[in-house]
Amino acid sequence: MANSPAGVVEAAFQYYMAQDRDAAFPLYADDFTFTSPQDDHIDKAAFFERCFPTAGRLKEQRLLHITPADDELVFAYYQYELTTGEKHHNVEAITVRDGLIREVQVFFGGKV
């Protein structure tokens, strides 16, 4: 499972919460793109500069479902709690090819 797309996604989430950039960085392809309501197709360097360091604003993040859609696409549904106490749900559509994360598209959910 660790080398499956779902396993790669789980590892990426764990490294994010642990803020282990050295472990996370090799999981992402050189041509990786990240899109969210706040970011439009940013590259790997911008993702690791702007987005990866944000785990400090979280009290907790729990993966609720990791669902493979096909051989490359994985949906990650998770809940997180901010240090302010607010809780939210998000979904990410993550493309993993040849063991590397190629693309992440984040869909923001509402407060829980």
From TrEMBL:
InterPro entries, per database record: NTF2-like_dom_sf
Protein name: SnoaL-like domain-containing protein
Organism field: Streptomyces melanosporofaciens
Phylogenetic lineage: Bacteria, Bacillati, Actinomycetota, Actinomycetes, Kitasatosporales
